[in-house]
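Practice record 12: protein with S-adenosylmethionine.
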Amino acid sequence: MTSVGLGMPTLPVTATAPRPLGENGLLDTYGRRARDLRVSLTDRCNLRCSYCMPPEGLPWLPGPELLSSAEIVRLVELAVHDLGIDEVRFTGGEPLLRKDLPALVRAASSLRTPDGRRVKTALTTNGIGLDRRAGDLAEAGLDRVTVSLDTLDRSRYQAITQRDRLADVLAGIDAALVAGLTPLKVNSLVVRGVNEGEAVDLVRWACATGVELRIIEHMPLDAHDSWDRSSMVTAAEVLATLRTAFELTPLPGRGSAPAERWEVHERGVRLGTVGVIASVTRPFCGDCDRMRLTADGQVRSCLFSASGTDLRGLIRSGASDEDLAQAWRGNAWAKKAGHGSDDQGFVRPDRPMSAIGG
Ligand code: SAM
């Protein structure tokens, strides 16, 4: 048996082996099993983050092309009951733009896995409007929230997102903490020449606020092809900056989580923890347990998949649950060893992150 290196882990290559008979989960040829389903509810967003989409927005999917509430619930149920999924994260685009979000959360969080476990539910959001909706979402059964926030400076926030909404995001974070949607994570993307000088302040703020900051590398998934390897701030650079202010002690037990985590001390006083998600320079594909469902009903086994499997088309042509499950398992089985976004000759996916689900 040969092995493929993926930056950190190594995987056995069994690509020629047939899918094991009687195996019902979302297994791939490298032995990885998906259990974490990311469900994108819309490709639309109310921000225009410069690293994600152009100021004028994108040609959004027409309403009839989006999965309906009933179609989403059917696929999530199938994933939990028949395919081994036990965690569901709603994302987008901006998932808070979908009016049926509480109903979808209620449906997902009421599901039980075949061995009787409650499905864990989470939301990835820009936080706008969360101050008004956090209580309802918690009541509907939502467990956790991750909020995206790249800066604490109002004018820089406006420059990055093209919207003056920093106060709304901070109010959303406060409301989510009050509603118990914890542990609350805050994802910050660092862009050279924009917010790279803020990492230390963001860590201090996160530790004081009781949220876990995760600093993420910019990936080649923007809609307008602005990504450039040489201008990407790497995880190594972020850590070097943080070490100028803090003592960082690595925390073990990362499992399938994307973030490498450190305990943060400042002059001997423990402040909290920080995570760094080095998707490009230190990919974690070997431990990946994710599967994505786009707002228009494609499943993708990787954020960087060149294309997806169209479950919406199957549903709308009358497919049975078993037909859907077979198509979904086939997509999982074909998952590549790694996303290769830092490799020469990397081919970008056919759509941007906002239209896949972040
Ligand atoms: N609207 C929601 C939000 O803001 O969290 C969910 C979708 S958004 C695409 C999810 C995350 O993707 C955000 O944290 C955003 O910063 C991040 N993101 C967008 N484009 C990215 C890129 N090219 N590389 C890395 N992360 C990106």
